[in-house]
Amino acid sequence: MNRLIECVPNFSEGRNMDVINQITDVIRQSKGVKLLDVDPGEATNRTVVTFVGNPEDVVETAFQAVKRAGELIDMRQHHGAHPRMGATDVCPLIPIAGITLEECAELARKLAERIANEAGIPCYCYEAAAFTPERRNLAVCRKGEYEALAEKLASKDGAPDFGARPIDEKVARTGCTAVGARDFLIATNFNLNTTSTRRANAIAFDVREKGRPVREGNPITGTPKKDENGNTIMQPGTLKGTKAIGWYIDEYKIAQVSMNITDINTTPLHVAFDEVSRCAQNRGIRVTGTEIVGLLPKRCLIEAGKYFLEKQHRSTGIPEGDIIEIAIHSLGLDDLKPFDPKEKVIEFMIEDDSAKKLVDLTVTGFAEETSRESPAPGGGTISAYMGALGASLGTMVANLSSHKPGWDDRWKEFSEWADKGQAIAKELLHLVDEDTEAFNRIMAAFGMPKKTDEDKAARSAAIQDATLYAAQVPLRTMKESMKVFKICRAMVMEGNPNSVSDAGVGVLAARAAVLGAGMNVKINAGSLKDRATADALIAEANELIKKANAEEADITAIVETKL
Predict the structure, then answer these.
(1) Domain range annotation of the chain
(2) Over the chain, what is the mean pLDDT?
(3) Is 270 a catalytic residue?
(4) 186-349 has the same fold as 4-181
(5) Any bridge partners for residue 123, and if so which?
(6) What does the pLDDT read at residue 217?
(7) Which residues of 394-421 are buried (b: 16+ CB within 10 A; e: fewer)?
(8) Do residues 211 and 157 lie in contact, with contact meaning Cβ atoms separated by under 8 Å?
(9) Rounded to whole angstroms, how far apart are CA atoms 76 and 142?
């Protein structure tokens, strides 16, 4: 899985578009990241920027943007409605895919240290990156705002985590920055079949973590109860990590429960939907759909789709696009207006549409591309695709079996097999393009200059590195294709008997994939100067070929007895 994080820096300038553009140009021109949104606010005099990418590139870009903001914004002249303490007020890192919150917290601490040391801007670390429990709360770090910095910097308790020093000309200009890590926040509205704000609020109070005040006498109009410290006693709601309120939307002529889910690991989107639906039903109201404000990670829809499939006792081992469609319809994401995942899902928004992939071709297009006089795609690519087809056939039998009449008590068993098959097929489809890329690396290495001895040495080394990689990729195809036999064997033995021939063809495809990829391992290993490495690769390939032949012979013999 690709590692992906989001960064949402808030810059203390919302009126001067020249300054805003100079800062955001730093992000636009950075490699490995994509700028998703720039939202300036005149009243707040603040611009919220959102960009995503791999962790290393996002952290580098964040540093450059914070540094540039410190050069352009003079906090001595800043006034706005929003709390702030620096040219870059906050800079949170948010895990999206393939990375944990704890890893983002460590990246945030290193970023804060670098900002302090190289850009001269003192930094506080907040939320998951905080060094003390108190500083997890941004309000504690920002207490007194910019105007209190001179006093805070002079005190031991108020000093920043990095770059602590008495206020000087530099700090007076840039202020301080809070760098942190937090979970992704989903802003969502649940549509209700009522116009009553009061009813919507009641549902919001039922579910939000804060809950509602406990009252004397009448639960609605009674006097709130206080504890011994004079604080209002609250009855917590049912959903942790959520904030919610009810309101009426004139545009849609309905009331909504408006919710921020601040911890999507504790309360996923689908859990919030079901709980709001339950509480609404208790009050004679129905949730008609869901509106997503802003963006969301793909996993939120995948988790939701699988959740609703499992509730139906249906297999979750279906294509990713189908799972997302189930989520869209189950959550009612298209209730108020069409929901396009390509415009709302972060991972889809950053896909490079200009990058041509073989797996995106039609079946006819793939065959035609293979037939052309160019040497790639070639046998290694086709082998990976045959392996993917084998995995897909095994998966198909598992899905048919999970939905077979009379086998309802076995749906989970076959769903698990289908999930495994989808994972194998996905990896092999990735190897379809990876094998062609490996060949292209060899061609690129041969195209390197060879005028000087240094050129020749560099070219020779590059050719050997590329050749080794071109042998390793089909070996990965072989290993992944070997996993297909286990799924197809299980489907031949236990699956829907009407589809036993399909599982048998899956076995044949898997064998062809292993043997074909093995040929590519051998032909590329033959060009390696490091004979010990080459011999090891060939020996491993031969062992896999031997096992594939045995698996194919054994399973197809079983298939023949069932035909």
Answers:
(1) 4-181, 186-349, 358-562
(2) 94
(3) no
(4) no
(5) 162, 177
(6) 86
(7) bbbbbbbbbbbeeeeeebeebbebbbbb
(8) no
(9) 16
Q: Under a CB-based contact definition with an 8 Å cutoff, are residues 177 and 88 in contact? A: yes
Give me the pLDDT at residue 352, please: 67
Put residue 180 in one of left, alpha, beta given phi > 0 → left and psi -120 to 50 → alpha.
beta
Is 4-181 CATH 3.90.650.10? no
Q: How far apart are CA 549 and CA 144, in angstroms?
A: 73
Amino acid found at 203: I
Residue 435: active-site member: yes
pTM beyond 0.90, yes or no: no
**pLDDT tens digits, one per residue of 73-130:** 999 999 988 889 999 999 999 999 899 999 999 999 999 999 999 999 999 999 999 9
559 within 8 A of 501, measured Cβ to Cβ: yes
What residues contact residue 25 under an 8 Å CB cut-off, 6+ apart? Answer: none
Closest by CA to 178, choosing from 97, 83, 44, 247, is 83
131 sits in which H/E element? none
Percent of the chain whose predicted confidence (pLDDT) is above 70 = 99
Tell me the DSSP string of 400-452. HHHT-TT-GGGHHHHHHHHHHHHHHHHHHHHHHHHHHHHHHHHHHHHTS--SS
CATH of domain 358-562: 1.20.120.680
| Confidence tier at 41 by pLDDT (50, 70, 90) | confident
pLDDT of residue 1: 52
Three-state SS across 266-305? Answer: CCCHHHHHHHHHHHHHHCCCCEEEEEEECCECHHHHHHHH
- Residue 218 has a pLDDT of 87
Q: What is the pLDDT of residues 261-295, one digit of tens each?
A: 999 999 999 999 999 999 999 999 999 999 998 88
Token pair, residue 87, equals 């040219």
Q: For residue range 499-517, list pLDDT tens digits in order.
A: 999 999 999 999 999 999 9
Whether the Cβ atoms of residue 114 and residue 70 lie closer than 8 Å to each other: no
Q: Which of 82, 313, 329, 403 is catalytic?
A: 82
DSSP H/E element including 155 = none
From the candidates 89, 161, 433, 435, give the one annotated as an active-site residue: 435
What fold is seen in the domain 186-349?
Alpha-Beta Plaits (3.30.70)
DSSP code for 111: H
